[in-house]
C-alpha cells in the first residue's frame, strides 16, 4: 500500500511553505508532523503555556481530520516543552482533550525551532 500524503505544507508568518507534510498515512497508521501553536495566519498565538497548548491541540485535531481520524484514534504522542516548569499547566490542558483512553506519551524539555512553548506530534491508528 503506498504512502498517502495529507494536506498542503504549512505556510508560516514569512509566507514560505515548510518542507514537510502535515500528515502521512501508512496503511492504518497516521503520522502527524509536530504541531506548534500557530494560528491560521502562521503566527504563534500569544499567551502562556495554556493558550499555546490549546492551539496545538486544535491544530492536531484539524490535521487528524484530513485522514478521517480524531484524538480518540491517537495511540502515541511526543511532546516538547520549552520549559519543564510548564509541565503541570501543560498537562491540565492536554488531559482535557483526551477521554478515558489516554495515548502513550513521551515528554521532554527542548529548545524549539520557533518562539513556541510547546510542540506535539502524534501517531494515530485508524483503519480505512
Automatic annotation (TrEMBL):
InterPro entries: RidA, RutC-like_sf, YjgF/YER057c/UK114. It comes from the Bacteria. It holds the Pfam family Ribonuc_L-PSP. GO terms for cellular component: cytosol. One of its GO terms (molecular function) is deaminase activity. SUPFAM superfamilies: YjgF-like. Belongs to the RutC family. PANTHER family: 2-IMINOBUTANOATE/2-IMINOPROPANOATE DEAMINASE RIDA, 2-IMINOBUTANOATE_2-IMINOPROPANOATE DEAMINASE. This is Reactive intermediate/imine deaminase.
